[in-house]
Amino acid sequence: MAIEAVIASHAQGDVPEWEKTIEGIVDKDLGTAYTQSIIRLANALINKSDAFLKRYAALPQMRGRSYVIAISNYGTQDFNMIRDVPMQWLLYDHFDLGAVVKPNGSKIKLGWFKDDRFAHISAVMYSALATFGKTRALSAAEGEYVFQAIRIRKNCEPVQIVASKADYSETLADGLRLFVNPHAAVPLDLGPFEDDCIRKFLTHPEHGVLSTCHPDGDLCMRMIQRIVRRNDAEV
After folding, report:
1. The pTM of the whole model exceeds 0.85
2. Chain-centre distance for alpha carbon 32
3. Which site from 109, 113, 126, 200 is most exposed, i.e. has the minimal number of CB atoms within 10 Å?
4. Distance between CA 7 and CA 22 in Å, rounded?
């Protein structure tokens, strides 16, 4: 396989994710947040799709290889809060919305993996949790931290977690999503992705889109608080 990484960046004139404000992440209509994120993700994916068709496809080293796009979403301030829902809508259009409308009036058609329009893209790798918080979870960072997380068990049961760093556990693959294109010209070998922590979205000919589920729950949200204690002289 060939995997290419890309980010979805913020729109021109919008507030960058790293300069987020309270107003930018609360009291926002959820449908609007999804639409904004879908637009930014689609723009990034279309650029890579065009690059493949115009350049990569002719390269001899690409012959017979699955083309996978690994994307991180920094297109909206609240990307980590709305999780992978925008990507599900963009690729599979679960609710048959058909399209979303961009600010300039043009439309982005949803359901990219429901037909062979993007057969040259074998899969999309995505994570809303590949953030600095993951480095806190995996590293031996000094300091006192409280982790708040939610895992989804059996695809519907939320498991809430509040734990200190010493009692919190997370893997590098936790939160990673693999969206598989059933119409791929070169089907993806799922062998390298056989990790329970990777949630895989697959299409069944009779039952539609199915997703794998970690027996202990798929990580879908994580927030971290650092506790800084004042000494007696400062109080």
Report:
1. yes
2. 18
3. 109
4. 23
